[in-house]
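Justification of resources, computational component.

The compute hours requested in this renewal are based largely on the per-chain cost of generating structure records like the one below. Each record pairs the submitted sequence with a full structure-token output. That output is archived, and it is also reused by downstream analysis tasks.
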Amino acid sequence: MVDNISWHKGKIDKKAREEKLKQKGMVIWFTGLSGSGKSTIAVEVEKLLFQKGRTVYRLDGDNIRYGLNKDLGFSPEDRTENIRRIGEVAALFADAGLITLVSFISPYKKGREHAKKAAGEDNFKEVYVKADVETCARRDPKGLYEKVQRGEIDNFTGISAPYEEPENPDLIIDTKKLTIEQSAQKVIEMINKELVD
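The structure output for this chain reads:
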């Protein structure tokens, strides 16, 4: 813990921001293997929410590594720090009253628990985008599984690095069985149960 700092409280709280935006600030945390469909579903959910007049923002694992987390690699320690940072950022967005869609592999249960604690249990929904390694490798939208097979990538989640499946996610989306549209609709239904109108 850092000494000599204290939280500077403002005069506007989360409830006031939510009332102004007419929605609940929350974090929807998409987790799953590379190629499972996390980002694709989050993009669709963002579009649908925006079309309905919601204030929404999407935080994507790759996008964040271009800026905020560009100093991090893929060691277990760096993966942990990657998720710690984005969990804190997502919590701030939710506190601002935004519906925050986070799509990160987030392979470790402890990291996802930290993100949930940062946002607050009532403001956090975990969505497990489920697809087995074989399905993800067949899709291979970034060519990563091919690189793993050629020995060009070490510590690859689901193959040479662990992925700890969520034990009690709020929603499981099996992308072998559901289309992107069907998957997005399931997420929208979950969010709609939480929103303040």
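Strands lie at 26-31, 56-60, 99-103, 124-130, 171-174. The helical segments are 14-21, 38-51, 61-65, 76-95, 109-119, 133-139, 144-149, 180-192.
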